[in-house]
Amino acid sequence: MTKRKLSWIIPIVLILLLVVYRYYRDSSQRQDDMVQLTVVPFETGGGWGYKVMVDNHSYIYQDVIPGIAGNKPFRSKDDAARVGQAVVEKMMAHQRPTVTLTDLLRMQVAGVQ
Question: Which of 12, 38, 84, 100 is the most buried (most CB within 10 A)?
């Protein structure tokens, strides 16, 4: 090969290597930016509640049924987990993590009328 041909090949190879490096670096950063959302039901003095954990840190601590008057805990672990999961789904959809009486009735949470 002549020097003239080599002078074109080396910069092109270097540019391709840079593009590939940036692509893989950016894709690994995107995975690192993702957070893990989990629901952890827990027992309270008179029933159940739930915590929404973000990357293993407590983000929402709900020891009573939200969206109703009074301070009643959930009657079952399953009810607390279902409502907590609904909150996580709202968070993942970039909505406010609120729970209304309508939401509770739709989920058939025990003790909600």
Answer: 84
Beta bridge partners of residue 51, listed in sequence order? 40, 61
| pLDDT tens string 22-74 | 777 766 555 556 889 999 999 998 999 999 999 999 999 999 999 999 899 99
d(CA 68, CA 113): 9
> Which residue, 112, 55, 58, 47, is CA-closest to 80?
47
**Backbone angles phi and psi of 41, in degrees to 5:** -70, 145
Structure tokens at 65: 């049924």
What integer pLDDT is reported at residue 32 of this predicted model? Answer: 54
